[in-house]
Design goal:
three-stranded antiparallel β-sheet; 11 strands; Rieske Iron-sulfur Protein; globular; five-stranded antiparallel β-sheet; mainly beta
């Protein structure tokens, strides 16, 4: 695993998201009820930033909603929870150390992830 620091914990809004632009991918770091998640900041249906949407619970799952067409993506798995999106987005492991947030872009993005808490 190759965790890299992407932001400060205090930079991520409570029950909100922060867009991180990295050389190979843009990542959404998302706070849901105090837990952090990271996923590719790109709707698999409309190819727009997920960080433009709301962080909310959808059918019991922590999600981020695409602002354009309303598809929600499960923050734990990247799977869409409703149409029109049908393809998942990659998710990444998150680690919090003090006020530093780290993600692992080299991890197996097909496996469900646990959230990082602080």
């Amino acid at each position: 695993m190759a965790f890299e620091r992407v932001c400060a914990r205090s930079d991520v809004p409570e029950d909100g998201s922060l867009r991180i632009e990295l050389p190979d991918v843009d990542v959404a770091v998302v706070d849901f009820d105090g837990e952090l998640y990271a996923l590719e900041d790109r709707c698999s249906h409309a190819d727009i930033p997920l960080t433009d949407g709301e962080v909310e619970e959808f059918d019991g799952a922590p999600t981020i909603e695409c602002a354009l067409h309303g598809s929600c993506f499960d923050l734990r798995t990247g799977q869409p929870t409703n149409l029109p999106a049908t393809e998942p987005v990659p998710v990444y492991p998150v680690r919090v150390e003090g006020d530093d947030v780290y993600i692992d872009l080299d991890a197996d993005v097909d496996a469900p992830l646990a959230a990082a808490t602080h």
